[in-house]
Amino acid sequence: MGGRRSPWSGAIALGATMVVGAWLVQDGSGPGLPPAPTAAEALAAGPARAALSGTPMAASAPTRIRIPAITVDAPVTGLGLDPEGHLATPADHDRNLAGWYRAGVTPGQSGTALMAGHVDTADGPAVFYGLGALHRGDRIDVSRQDGSTAYFVVDALEVYDKSAFPDRQVYGRAADPQLRLITCGGAFTKSRGYQGNLVVYAHLAGSRRAG
């Protein structure tokens, strides 16, 4: 592993709080570098929305995330802040574990919900290893504690260098229900690890209510 600090590049703007961190966690182990998105999946490639967002849901913590296109099916744990005030990372002893920033909105609520996962660990590819292979229109399903499921559709994928991470664009508040999935990405060196972050932008397309 390349360090134990938070993986979050840039700053998370939540109310009046600014939390700054740098993603230096992963080590690029495994069969090779993870897939990277093509230019066709970028925000600049065209309109990010194919449809209006679904009806906002009440607050309920996420319990599981499924991404059928890349066979992700993983439990979700809450993420807080580490002793230095940076957003913590999911435990790296479980490669199939995603994290949700529990001080933010829950997936399906109006606003920007944040979820993160390791791209790899010392033991090999991890939960978000395949994020770069997603395409616009792919589905992300988030099961929630109240028994409901929020269905998201991918709008775009971007890779940002950690020195130029657009924190307000990624973390900023949204009027409708949106989701960001974040993992390591970009160039990799053994001495410095991954040099950037891969961000998946998605919006709520629908939901299944509890019961």
What is the compact description of this entry?
By secondary structure, the chain is mainly beta.
Commentary on this structure:
2% of the residues lie in helices and 40% in strands. By secondary structure, the chain is mainly β. The chain has a single domain, classed as Beta Barrel (Sortase, Chain: A), CATH 2.40.260.10. The strands form three sheets. An eight-stranded mixed barrel has the order 3-4-5-6-11-12-10-9. Strands 1-2 form a two-stranded antiparallel ribbon. The protein is globular.
Radius of gyration: 16 Å
Quote the beta fraction.
35-45%
Number of domains: 1
Total helices: the number is 1
Give the full name of the CATH homologous superfamily.
Sortase
Query: Strand pairing plus helix content: what structural class?
Result: mainly beta
Q: What does the largest sheet look like?
A: 8 strands, mixed, barrel
Mean pLDDT: 83
Compute the number of strand runs: 12
Low-confidence segments, given as residue ranges, are 1-6, 13-26
Range of helix content = under 10%
Query: Which oligomeric form is depicted?
Result: single chain
End-to-end span in angstroms? 43 Å
- Shape call: globular
CATH fold descriptor = Sortase, Chain: A
**CATH architecture group name:** Beta Barrel
| Strand line-up in the sheet with most strands | 3-4-5-6-11-12-10-9
What order do the helices and strands follow?
A: EEEEEEEEEEHEE
- Can you tell me the CATH class? Mainly Beta
